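dumping this here before i forget
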Amino acid sequence: MERKLWETIVKQCAPVLVDVKPSNLLILAREEQDGFAEAELPEGIEALVLSRGERKATWLLYRRDRLEAELVWPQTRAFLQAFGYRAGEEGLSAMLLRLRERYAAYKEGKAAFPHEMGVFLGYPLCDVKGFIEQGGRNCLLSGYWKVYGNVRKAKRTFQTYREVRDALLRLLSMEDVPREAELTA
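structure:
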């Protein structure tokens, strides 16, 4: 995969790449899609296309084990049932297909944005519920998501996400730097 595409992936998905988050959305321009489709993803990471438009595609990059662990909580399952997920009856694959259906309906202008996506992205349930109840207003903090609950924990999480993104971008930038042995040859 070409470096520019990896930079895009790292900028949008570093937390899932280093296994500190269950999933991330990846939005790719048309010219990036072929390279991504042919790419070999890091071990443990799966990809599901949520929508393809003329100019962009939206993918969900996820770690199955982490995502299943996020969605297993009874409160989360009960919350998702309100959006047509048969939590407890369906496995992760069926739940992801339901998410894709809801996102596609949104993209086609047939439904509102599926805000329950936040729990699939690993956002705290209280923040996802707060966002829905408040219509995105009156949050206590805005960063990777809008926070309605534990601000201190969210700040630490945001910092972790920034740190892993920056570390991976530094590693990518070092790919072109000649190694010491190459300099002396």
